[in-house]
Amino acid sequence: MRTVVELRAAETHPLRLAVLRAETPTRVVEFPEDHLEGALHLGVLDGDELVAVSTWVPRTLDGCAGPAVQLRGMATAVHAQRTGVGALLVEDGCRRAWQHGADAVWANARDAALDFYRRHGFEVVGDGFVDAATALPHHRVVRRRPVRLEAGAEAALAAVPVIDLGGDRDEVAAAIDAACTHLGFLVITGHGVAREVVDRAWTAAAEFFALPDADKATVAMARPGDPYGYNGLAAETLARSLGEDTPPDVKESYAIGPAGLVPGPLSDDEAWAFSPTPWPDAVLPALRPAWSAYFTAMGDLAARLLSLMATALGLDEAYFAPLIDRHASAMRALRYPPLAGPARPGQLRAGAHTDYGTLTILLRDGHDDRPGAGGLQVRRADGRWIDVPTVADSFVVNLGDAMSRWTNDRWVSTLHRVALPSGRPTGATGPGETAGHVGTAAGSSGGAAGTERRSLAFFHNANWDAVIECLPTCLAPGEQPRHPPIAAGPHLMSKFHATVLDPGADLCPTGEPTPGGVR
Question: In angstroms, what CA-CA distances link 35 with 8, 55, 133, 293, 301?
């Protein structure tokens, strides 16, 4: 059992110094700020062992109207992030700071810790600098006291909105703007995608996962880090894309790339995104045509959504068109198997993560999303996880990191996950299915632990060489962009590679090991 406790300064020094010496070339042996009046020392006890510490020091902060607190210590050290104790320290320390009247918490963060801080509500402010003690690049990060939400904003955060794309364009754009500002998630109807295209793709995905393991292995990813092909159970940990070290996700997947959209000539890195898809033509010839048609339909729908988003952002409706005409998108079918035993601590069907590209379009099965059913969940700005509703003939759309950067964080790329089930009944169906079809591979335990889930995700990305930088309508007079420009392709590749596990991953709670050689 881990608990956060208050400590004396002397109790924090040995652990802080040991971690510093292990992680950075530093000679710091004294922490004089620890002895300032009002300094608060927090530690995490794992049983009787002190495993992480931090210090919260009263300081002034330029640009903050009221009192501020500086966070120091090991909350973002590598071991603290991997074990989750850093998150405990940050969240508990911020709560105590607000209770004692602070208007902001700030820290000097190493480059490697920036993603950690962003996940916990901090923003990067000012230019970077080199820390004198460690000779490492640092940035100042600030988390301001939460603003009390107005009634309209609270309502916007209460549930994922359902938006009919067939309505008045300006009204639809306004609804999209509100959804992307508050949650970064929406459910769309009136999308115009032909039902037969959807049903054929969904059926082909179900037939693929029903194949014997030996047949699925014929289209396996040849090596960890390949973008397309079959990925077996326990082969990926999505939370790693944000620096979290959690148990492997409880899922298997099969992914395809942008066939027919290959530009040329290609750099070595770009060739990775446009590498050939291994198709199971010999054992499932219907899959390639069904998925190719669906991939094209999703690309068209993504372009329509981005046109509406351009209108919502005050841009010309064709603004994004030249940036996505060679889009390096991917599509992935996912199967979340039933559980045969208890999960490992911290394990999920899909760990908490943000998506990397412009937007994701998701088709899900029809299982209910009541608490405990083990479905898709979104984390609100206030930290609460909410379920994404199931709506007939709809898609779930969420923003990726590229769109958040494009809009200077006006729109949000939101943490989401697929939870593990806990005792709900089975029996709902997916697109084009009859009752019982979904459960054919799941067994018949009668409870959510025996429930299989499936989904089909289209991850839309901009052109490989498209520059993601602050849009002109998202920068107020006198304001500076919060993020430096990045090329869409290399950003995508670096995030993807961070999620892939090395060979020899642990068993899943399904009782099934990762198939030999299948990553």
Answer: 10, 10, 19, 66, 59
